[in-house]
Write a structure and sequence with these properties.
Strands 2-3-4-1-5 form a five-stranded parallel β-sheet. The longest helix is centred in the last third of the chain and has 16 residues. Helix 8 links the parallel strand 3 and strand 4. The chain is α/β, with parallel strands linked by helices. It has ten helices and five strands; from the N terminus they run ααααβαβααβαβααβ. The radius of gyration is 26 Å and the shape is globular.
Length: 235
């Protein structure tokens, strides 16, 4: 008994390509048109790109607080096009300080606001971090340029700082927070800040310089003292 073996054909080899060409010709399909279609990139979806960068828990976040929606409209209104015919981009705008108890929905509203902003059709370069993670990223350590990282966070057009006041207070934390907030204050960059602290406690935590700038650059949004994670409406 003889065993016949065939050399494996590499996809895209001459034989395969010739057969594909004959099949396309028999169906009156232009091979060049098929090749152009295959090379065409996937349509870019700003919302899809946004959702891919969001934590799964907040990908469906919807902003419905009146003051948050007002912020979205104002930031979108101030967006400008870098050149004629180009898409408008967020460059400057107001900021929000969202205060309330743990679980009141502040983080949900912050992510929902950025999502809503993208849905208005403007370009948004954004970044989100908790205050604790921010300080960890900015803390000086070997092999890391913390000054470069601070500069990158400072100039990001839209920034979410979640849980301000949750990290342990120190002179270093106060100084880094001041440098970050002061740069965003000077350049009028939209910033969404959430905190569980009352203003008096925030002042004691961050000092007068930071809280003074926050008072000038943000609209304070008070959330109801209800932990929505525990008190979900009945289905």
């Amino acid at each position: 008994m003889r065993t016949h073996t065939r050399d494996p054909q590499t996809l895209g080899g001459a034989g395969t390509l010739n057969r594909m060409a004959r099949i396309l010709a028999a169906r009156n399909i232009d091979p060049a048109a098929v090749a152009a279609l295959a090379d065409e990139p996937e349509p870019f979806s700003p919302l899809g790109a946004l959702l891919a960068a969001m934590p799964p828990r907040y990908q469906g976040a919807v902003a419905d607080h009146p003051q948050v929606l007002t912020w979205v409209r104002e930031v979108a209104r101030q967006a400008v096009a870098p050149s004629r015919g180009a898409r408008r981009q967020v460059t400057t705008g107001p900021s929000l300080l969202m205060a309330g108890v743990v679980g009141a929905g502040k983080t949900h509203q912050a992510y929902g606001a950025v999502r809503h902003l993208v849905q208005t059709g403007v370009g948004v370069r954004w970044r989100a971090t908790t205050a604790a993670d921010l300080y960890a990223d900015l803390r000086p350590r070997p092999g890391v340029d913390s000054e470069q990282e601070l500069a990158a966070v400072s100039r990001c057009p839209v920034l979410i700082i979640d849980d301000l006041g949750a990290a342990k207070a120190s002179e270093w934390v106060e100084e880094v927070t001041y440098r970050l907030i002061n740069r965003r204050y000077n350049h009028m960059l939209p910033t969404l800040i959430t905190t569980n602290l009352a203003i008096k406690d925030l002042r004691a935590y961050l000092g007068d310089r930071v809280t003074s700038r926050l008072a000038q650059m943000t609209t304070r949004v008070e959330f109801e003292p209800v932990d929505r994670r525990r008190h979900r409406p009945a289905a």
